[in-house]
Design brief:
single chain, alpha/beta, nine-stranded mixed sheet, 50% helix
Length: 905
């Protein structure tokens, strides 16, 4: 038992170490990430909805259907921002890329810039936040990232920066580019010229104010006064525009030393990534905040659960878009957002981080149309289609046209009727005059010449009043939804251009939701920290050791209960208490797997050890007792009964005749080897036909059928086994040297009722065997073979059983038999019908002649029987059987009952 306990504990310990190593190698990472998602999604989670201070203006499928395909004129965005400002929104964050000018619509960029710099209904300036793009696919990869790539890139940019109009092939040669990098440059020379122009512009901006386009061009063209037109001019102008935008955005960026971003270009450009694109200068100048809208921080399974806080950009540090929007909304300066390895500071708020990224604390519900879990119904988190704002702006324009036409009509009426001149400018006077004109018109006191104009004025006045009332109502509704709030304007449409990212809430979550969640963490001052890295290995080891110890001490069932309890407690603690109450994300999968694996390994080790012990015992005892008995007892120990069970069985006794003579010449080892050879082969033939080999008796054996349950064909199987054993002995005997003594086999078969069970000297020495007269009869029949000169004898009960089997299965092969009459064997007083199992080659006449002589004796016709036996001997030769019958007839035996009685063994 101590060995088993030690084995269980050591195995569980090793399994725990395996789980720890697997966890360290990342085997549980994907499942752990899924467990994070399930905790955010759980309906059992405490309700933590998105802040009511955040609203969403959505570019949705309905807006695209009504307003047309994207891109829209930026006047549409300007109209939406104007309406938000009128409704009193404090901050508007445009999660829309504005890095290219709206060249198709003149004045559209200026209109949006005016909207972003407008005052709100409260009189305060609107806090417009714009986004910058940092797409990863702009980075140089492939041949440029190999050894020497940064050096050759710097050389190429130096050449291009001194003469932007140089032929690409000449530039490649002058920069001494290798074959692969030369091919890369020649396939897209404009891109590299832009990079060179950007490098020059950054150097000029670092030394003084933003240079004019002319000065910039002079540097790039080597001082040529004739700037003219060249292949890269448009691209260079775009770079200058980008520089202007970063120059005006500088006031919204945090300060601090540049940190290399990992982009190969950043190694030759001062730290910031060339891939980061700002909005056009006009919009940059109108904005009061800027943030990076690009989604990054995806986990290994491609899902966004974390976000980086700071990017290096030209002129300083730029915050993640949601954090920048929240800071602008709260009036915090750009330098208030600071990223460190273990925390992200926004003003006096500290958000936990790991390796510079923070875990997004997803709310239990977001906006009203996208609530995954029911939140607080008392807090409105509205979603407004941008189409509604544009429609409202259009209604305002229509109303303005009506009012303008009304005022013009009123001026014409005033000129003709000498009305109060203030009516054209004072709404109160205008309303009074309109009422007076309506009364005069009803009394037919309006001059006929003025009547049409008065009617037109009154119609326009009524239309303006109704439109103004409806507009005021809609504006009031909008004010209730966005007043003094942070409003994100972004995509939730599902089309090809949609901004969708995989998050814990699904594979297609609108990207603007990510920014809203980041802003909500700042505004609501909440976050979720991640447990220290040592928690997972410590929990793995502790829980694994506990499970191993319980498996070693308590056994399978109770250790399972203990292990299941530990797993349940860890789940409840990590998923419910730690996550919901303490807002700490604790590892779940690996710590829960550790006790399960340790318990399973410990239990399996005990099971294997027990199985090994059982196998050892089985191997030991299978060599001493029947394999069927071993298997039966191993499967059902209770089947071993001291009282036994009465059952009809068929018993076979066998003896190797002539073995004594052989043993005298073989010596001890040779005797054992020969005996094992013969008896082993005979045991195989018996066992293969379902016999239970009960014991070996020197050079003989005892076996029987129905040892563990009734065998319906035991008689036929016994006869077949006898024939097979005879054939096996003949086969083995044919292999001995010529002239050596031959071994033969005598078999006796009997069927009858016996007691089958565990017999002997309990409890120390027992034997599963059969006891009864049928066993003795079988042994006597084996011995009677010597008297009759036969090899296989069976009683009438066995023969009757074979006949029944033959009747049930017509056509089945049955053994051939020769009737030897009724016989009383030595040691028995009851006569039995005796039969010999003969070879398939035995002649029918030989069997018939035997049975005629036996039948005459049975009918007490002794003279006739003697005559028939003499005829038998004259035809077939004398035999022990014929001599036994003739001797009995001469002695007068059988005259009374026709039974042959044997006198000797």
């Amino acid at each position: 038992m101590k060995v088993l306990r030690s084995t269980a504990f050591v195995t569980g310990l090793l399994a725990t170490v395996a789980v720890w190593l697997a966890s360290a190698l990342g085997a549980f990472d994907t499942l752990e990430l899924r467990s994070e998602d399930s905790r955010f999604q759980s309906p059992m989670r405490r309700k933590e909805p998105l802040s009511g201070e955040i609203a969403l203006v959505a570019i949705d499928d309905g807006a695209l259907a009504s307003m047309g395909r994207w891109p829209w004129p930026r006047t549409y965005l300007a109209s939406a921002v104007d309406e938000l400002a009128r409704a009193g929104a404090r901050t508007v964050a445009l999660d829309v890329l504005l890095s290219e000018p709206d060249s198709a619509n003149a004045g559209a960029d200026d209109a949006l810039a005016r909207a972003l710099s407008a005052s709100t209904s409260r009189g305060a300036p609107l806090r417009g936040v714009v986004g910058v793009s940092a797409e990863e696919d702009e980075r140089l990869t492939g041949v440029w990232q190999r050894a020497g790539g940064d050096r050759e890139l710097a050389s190429l940019l130096e050449v291009l920066g001194g003469n932007i109009d140089i032929e690409p092939a000449d530039a490649a040669a002058k920069a001494n580019l290798s074959a692969g990098r030369r091919e890369s440059f020649l396939s897209q020379p404009i891109r590299f010229k832009q990079m060179a122009a950007w490098r020059v512009l950054r150097q000029m901006m670092s030394k003084g104010p933003m240079p004019s386009l002319e000065d910039f061009m002079l540097v790039l063209t080597g001082g040529r006064s004739n700037l003219g037109s060249f292949d890269a001019r448009i691209a260079v102008e775009e770079i200058h525009e980008r520089g202007r935008a970063w120059d005006v955005l500088r006031r919204h960026l945090g300060t601090g030393a540049a940190v290399t971003s990992g982009d190969i270009f950043s190694e030759v450009s001062g730290g910031e990534s060339f891939a980061i694109e700002p909005p056009v200068p006009a919009l940059a100048a109108a904005a009061r905040g800027v943030g990076v809208v690009t989604s990054d921080g995806y986990d290994g399974d491609g899902t966004k659960r974390r976000t980086r806080a700071i990017w290096m950009v030209p002129g300083g540090r730029c915050a993640q878009f949601g954090l920048a929007a929240a800071a602008a909304h709260l009036g915090l300066p750009p330098d208030s957002i600071v990223q460190e390895d273990a925390r992200i500071s926004v003003g006096d708020l500290e958000l936990p981080a790991r390796s510079g990224t923070m875990l997004l604390d997803w709310p239990s519900s977001t906006f009203e149309s996208f609530a995954d879990v029911a939140g607080d119904a008392s807090v409105r988190r509205p979603t407004i289609s941008i189409a509604a704002l544009i429609s409202l702006a259009r209604q305002r324009q229509v109303l303005a046209g009506i009012e303008r036409e009304r005022d013009e009509s009123l001026q014409r009426v005033m000129a003709q009727l000498e009305m109060d001149a203030r009516a054209a400018h004072d709404p109160t006077v205008r309303a009074s005059e309109a009422a007076r004109l309506s009364d005069l018109r009803m009394d037919d006191r309006i001059p006929h010449a003025v009547e049409p104009e008065v009617a037109r004025f009154l119609e326009l006045e009524e239309s303006a009043e109704g439109g103004a009332a409806r507009l005021d109502e809609a504006s009031e509704d909008l004010r209730s939804l966005v007043g003094d709030r942070l409003v994100f304007l972004g995509w939730i449409a599902s089309g090809a251009l949609a901004d969708q990212v995989p998050t814990p809430y699904g594979p297609r979550t609108p990207g603007v939701f990510v920014h809203a969640v980041a802003a909500d963490m700042v505004i609501g001052r909440h976050s979720r920290s991640v447990a220290p890295e040592w928690v997972s290995p410590a929990a793995i080891v502790a829980l694994g050791l506990a499970a191993s110890l319980s498996a070693a001490l308590l056994g399978g069932f109770w250790s399972f209960i203990v292990t299941a309890g530990m797993v349940a407690l860890w789940w409840f603690g990590a998923a419910r208490i730690s996550f919901d109450e303490w807002c700490v994300l604790v590892p779940l999968v690996a710590p829960m797997s550790s006790p399960v694996v340790a318990w399973a390994a410990s239990t399996a080790a005990v099971a294997v050890a027990n199985a090994r012990d059982r196998a050892r015992i089985t191997r030991q005892f299978a060599a001493r007792v029947s394999p069927q008995l071993v298997a039966r007892l191993a499967g059902d120990p209770d089947s071993l009964s001291m009282s036994g069970e009465e059952r009809e069985i068929t018993v076979v006794f066998g003896d190797l005749a002539g073995f004594t003579a052989i043993a005298e010449s073989l010596g001890g080892p040779g005797v054992v080897a020969t005996l094992n050879l013969y008896l082993g082969r005979l045991a195989d033939e018996l066992v293969n036909r379902g016999a239970y080999v009960n014991k070996f008796l020197g050079d003989g054996f005892m076996a029987f059928w129905s040892a563990f349950g009734t065998e319906p064909e035991q008689e036929r199987l016994a006869a077949e086994s006898a024939a097979a054993c005879q054939a096996a002995v003949d086969e083995l005997g044919a292999k001995v040297e010529p002239g050596a003594p031959r071994i033969s086999l005598r078999i006796g078969i009997a069927t009858g009722v016996a007691v089958v069970g565990d017999c002997g000297a309990p409890p120390r020495l027992n034997d599963y065997t059969a006891i009864g007269d049928v066993v003795n009869l079988s042994a006597r029949l084996e011995s009677a073979n010597k008297q009759f000169g036969t090899k296989v004898l069976m009683d009438g009960a066995t023969r009757a059983g074979i006949d029944r089997i033959a009747a049930r299965t017509p056509g089945a092969a049955m053994p051939r038999m020769r009737c030897l009459g009724q016989v009383v064997v030595v040691g028995q007083s009851r006569p039995i019908d005796l039969y010999e199992v003969v070879d398939a080659s035995a002649q029918d006449d030989w069997i018939a002649d035997t049975e005629r002589a036996v039948r005459a004796f049975r009918e007490r016709d002794l003279a006739g029987s003697r005559s028939l036996w003499q005829e038998f001997e004259s035809r077939w030769g004398a035999s022990k059987l014929s001599q036994a019958y003739i001797a009995a007839i001469d002695a007068g035996d059988g005259a009374e009952d026709g039974v042959l009685r044997l006198r000797a063994k």
